[in-house]
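Tip: read the tokens left to right.
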């Protein structure tokens, strides 16, 4: 007896009762899921899908205009993203290249910053990894103006060393002893700057911008610590630091409703058994422990089409196996749909949701299925029937 084959029609009927089609912009049907929510997490199983960008931007606009969400936090460096002016920038591509990670350097993302309805949206970052040294001059100018040259000069030296070493850090699979020694010395240099800034800031009142820059300097030291831990342990540490940055941003933007745009891995409310066994903590798991009732987590998935691998190679999405939830969702003949899976939101746990389903997630070389019960990891699934790669600037003639 093949349980999936025998139960397929029944499960499809159950899903049909719950899903909300979004092909024609029926966003108001999502209103009931936003009641009491202060944080919305928008995931994606791959960073390299055009339709995720376009639909996330629609989602952000809906949340901003209809539900008062005024801060968008991207999976990008906190200090770079938070101190860059994107809206109304006459050199937007340069601003994005120097203020956001490379995953966002595409035509689809520019429509977020040229959307007049989103001009009063605040952009922030949550990551500790740096983007470019373009931000250093802004950091130094603010520190010198508000605290003084004695701190700015010390910071100038460590920032210069940081960006000399940063390419080396990224290119070495295993750090050499000399590199580790340099990183430790540099971390001590940042610690000295942090202490100087803390002493000065405790004695007076300083701008919100300087507070952001202070947090960015803390992140510089944290990025060095991430790299000193090695590739395996660093992944977990990065998530912990991103969570701490979000906690800091919640206080910095106190009272504001916040959207977080990141990968599904980071925003899932629970961890897989493997991650639990390895002791790895993720952003979504840590947030769910603190903000369970004010949090909405949405995982993005697709059923067909092409995305890019992390190395920018075309990769065809395949969900032919019957265990793929995406395969079943393809049968509804909807270009875009929203499937609530949170038991509290839909009133009951239906038999389809009790099953372990396959859902594709991007790995280093391609996609592989993650086996989960969706309701344990998300409040909803956002499904796109067919997708294409984003249009990255460097790929254009």
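Filled-in amino acids:
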């Amino acid at each position: 007896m093949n349980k999936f084959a025998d139960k397929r029609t029944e499960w499809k009927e159950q899903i049909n009762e719950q899903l909300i089609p979004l092909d024609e912009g029926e966003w108001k049907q999502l209103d009931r899921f936003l009641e009491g929510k202060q944080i919305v997490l928008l995931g994606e199983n791959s960073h390299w899908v055009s339709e995720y960008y376009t639909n996330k931007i629609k989602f952000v606009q809906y949340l901003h205009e209809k539900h008062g969400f005024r801060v968008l936090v991207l999976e990008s460096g906190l200090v770079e993203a938070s101190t860059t002016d994107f809206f109304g920038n006459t050199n937007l591509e340069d601003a994005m290249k120097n203020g956001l990670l490379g995953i966002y350097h595409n035509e689809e993302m520019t429509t977020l910053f040229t959307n007049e309805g989103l001009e009063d949206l605040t952009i922030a970052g949550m990551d500790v990894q740096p983007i470019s040294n373009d931000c250093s001059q802004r950091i130094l100018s603010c520190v010198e103006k508000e605290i003084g040259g004695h701190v700015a000069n010390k910071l100038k030296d460590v920032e210069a060393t940081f960006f000399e070493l940063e390419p080396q850090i990224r290119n070495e699979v295993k750090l050499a002893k000399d590199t580790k020694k340099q990183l430790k010395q540099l971390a001590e240099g940042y610690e000295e700057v942090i202490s100087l800034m803390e002493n000065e800031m405790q004695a007076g009142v300083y701008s919100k911008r300087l507070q952001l820059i202070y947090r960015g300097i803390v992140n510089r030291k944290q990025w060095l610590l991430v790299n000193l831990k090695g590739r395996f342990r660093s992944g977990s540490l990065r998530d912990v630091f991103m969570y701490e940055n979000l906690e800091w941003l919640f206080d910095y933007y106190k009272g504001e409703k916040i959207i977080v745009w990141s990968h599904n891995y980071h925003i899932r409310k629970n961890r897989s058994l493997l991650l639990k066994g390895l002791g790895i903590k993720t952003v979504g798991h840590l947030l769910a422990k603190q903000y369970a009732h004010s949090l909405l987590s949405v995982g993005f998935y697709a059923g067909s089409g092409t995305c890019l691998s992390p190395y920018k190679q075309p990769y065809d999405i395949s969900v032919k196996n019957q265990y793929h939830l995406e395969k079943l969702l393809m049968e509804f003949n909807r270009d875009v749909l929203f499937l609530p899976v949170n038991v509290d939101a839909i009133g009951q746990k239906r038999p389809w949701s009790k099953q372990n389903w396959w859902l594709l997630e991007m790995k280093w070389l391609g996609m592989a299925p993650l086996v989960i019960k969706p309701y344990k990891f998300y409040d909803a699934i956002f499904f796109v029937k067919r997708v294409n790669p984003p249009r990255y600037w460097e790929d254009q003639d």
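DSSP finds 16 helices and eleven strands in the chain. The longest strand covers residues 295-308.
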